[in-house]
């Protein structure tokens, strides 16, 4: 009587290789259609956005001390001081997150609020020129210096965000990666828009 032969493991091994081959093909297809690029560029946009928010928050944190210092010397500038305080309250009341980048209206509200705060701050600094004692105050000079540095960092953060969004949006709009964007719902993201592009690269002047 012949001994029964053991079952061959060849079909099992073949199935394993087939699975790996399919996975490799899928990975290759995802890479070719831009899926991996969307992942990296989306993360780059989120990181750049986070830095923009951080720098705007840093500016907002400087404002209360700045207003109080000016108030000590410029008691007659109540309207200007109140405008800065209200603009700061409006800007900080807007809740922002990475999801804001998928909501053009929310992004627009954020940009508008920050723009109004920038305008109010510029008017406050212009008013300070009329008070020599205020300009000579050490605390005021230190706050001005910090504010100038923060405005510069805001400018750099905005520029990096604009560049990151531009790269992402080009990918989302170009063929064939636009098909991947539709399938995986990668929406075009909003960017900062100003009437005068020079305003992005030129922070408000802070005089000493």
UniProtKB/TrEMBL annotation:
Domain of life where this protein originates: Bacteria
Keyword tRNA processing attached: no
Subcellular location, record wording: Membrane
Membrane topology: Single-pass membrane protein
Protein name: LemA
GO cellular component terms listed in the entry, alphabetical order: membrane
Similarity comment text for this entry: Belongs to the LemA family.
InterPro entries the record matches: LemA-like_dom_sf, MamQ_LemA
């Amino acid at each position: 009587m012949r001994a029964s032969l053991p079952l061959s493991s060849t079909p099992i091994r073949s199935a394993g290789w087939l699975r790996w081959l399919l996975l490799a093909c899928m990975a290759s297809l995802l890479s070719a259609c831009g899926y991996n690029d969307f992942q990296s560029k989306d993360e780059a946009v989120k990181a750049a956005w986070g830095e923009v928010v951080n720098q705007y928050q840093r500016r907002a944190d400087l404002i209360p001390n700045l207003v109080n210092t000016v108030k000590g010397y410029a008691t007659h500038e109540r309207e200007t001081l109140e405008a800065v305080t209200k603009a700061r309250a409006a800007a900080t009341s807007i809740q922002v997150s990475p999801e804001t980048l998928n909501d053009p209206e929310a992004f627009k509200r954020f940009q508008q609020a920050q723009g109004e705060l920038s305008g109010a701050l510029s008017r406050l600094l212009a008013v300070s020129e009329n008070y020599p004692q205020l300009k000579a105050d050490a605390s005021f000079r230190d706050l001005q210096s910090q504010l100038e540095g923060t405005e510069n960092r805001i400018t750099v953060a905005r520029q990096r965000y604009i560049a990151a969004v531009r790269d992402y949006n080009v990918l989302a709009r170009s063929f064939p990666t636009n098909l991947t964007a539709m399938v995986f719902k990668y929406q075009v993201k909003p960017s900062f828009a100003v009437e005068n592009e020079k305003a992005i690269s030129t922070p408000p002047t802070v005089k000493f």
